[in-house]
Amino acid sequence: MGANQSESGPDSRCPLCNSHGIFSFEGRDLLHDKPDTYRYMQCQRCSAVYQGTMPSPSDIAGFYPDDYEVYREVNNPLRHGRTKLAILLHKYHYTHLHVPLLFRLLAPVLAVSRYRDAISFVPNGRALDIGCGNGKFMRRMNSLGWRFEGVEFNPVAVDVCRRAGLKVFHGDLHAAAFEENSFDLVSARHLIEHVSDPDALMSEIARILKRGGRLVVRTPNSLALGRQWFGTYWYDNDVPRHLILFSPANLRMLAGRHGLLSLTEKTFTTPKIILMSWDYVTGNRDDPSKNRKVRRLIARFYVLLTAIGRRGDEIFGVYEKS
């Protein structure tokens, strides 16, 4: 992961606990094949991995071109498989869903290994997706009975959402100025790693959540087996867009500081992450391994290893406002 080199100064302070960090790695934007390098530190106290010098808001905006994948319009019709619907009904309180009897009977067995990152339903629940991108997740959740709205800073993505009939605020969460105790659920999926001040973000999330409301977080896992194997070529480093990489422990610490108590902490991975990491190592840009059936099959052994060791590439956490 690079030299064990200490650094000092205000820019090298950990954005989670304000302690000093040591050198972790130096990387560049492999997704867009750009030459500029970025230096990452690891906190000596909480182990967060973070950019040694946080970029300015204008620099951060420049990391996300308008054709960034999550901003693109999605025209695919919404479909939920009967297996998924059965598990949601059985385990996650979606009692309003209509599911064939056979699938309802199979649901207790299927739920052991399928859709373990589903979100428990709140009847007539008001929910917010921060950094909602093209609104795909909101559309899917609304079709299951939620009342989702979103926050997104990219104007192209906001336009995509609004044309799909979604309620989206253009700007950041603080600028949206939602009323206190407004939401039953806040979703921060693949968001917190992009934020330079996670403490301020978590404080605002806690303010707008109702008592007993829940925050759902999905973010790369700094303790992932893939990160150990691939180092600077690990796909979920996503330099320079990922400003901070969390572990389950320091994410729990951050949430707890704002009165959000951990209910669920799991790690997950997919063949895509390990295969994209392999493509970065080999320089393969023309024939992505994720599109090769045999390679996807082989990658499932890696998925199994991460499950056994609980070192998946991504953290899934649910936190409740006390």
Describe the structure.
The chain has 322 residues and is α/β, with parallel strands linked by helices. The protein is built from 11 helices and 11 strands. The strands form 2 sheets. A 7-stranded mixed beta sheet has the order 6-5-4-7-8-11-10, with helices on both faces. Strands 1-2-3-9 form a 4-stranded antiparallel beta sheet, with no helix packed on it. It is globular and about 55 Å long.
Write down the secondary-structure element order: EEEHHHEHEHEHEHEHEHEHHE
Question: Structural class, judged by helices and strands?
Answer: alpha/beta
Rg calculated over all Cα atoms: 20 Å
Low-pLDDT parts are: 1-10
Strand order, main sheet: write it out: 6-5-4-7-8-11-10
Cα-to-Cα separation, first versus last residue = 38 Å
Largest sheet: 7 strands, mixed
Mean pLDDT: 93
Helix segment count? 11
Instruction: Please report the total strand number as a whole number.
Output: 11
Shape, please? globular
- Which band does the percent of strand residues land in? 15-25%
Level of helix content? Answer: 25-40%
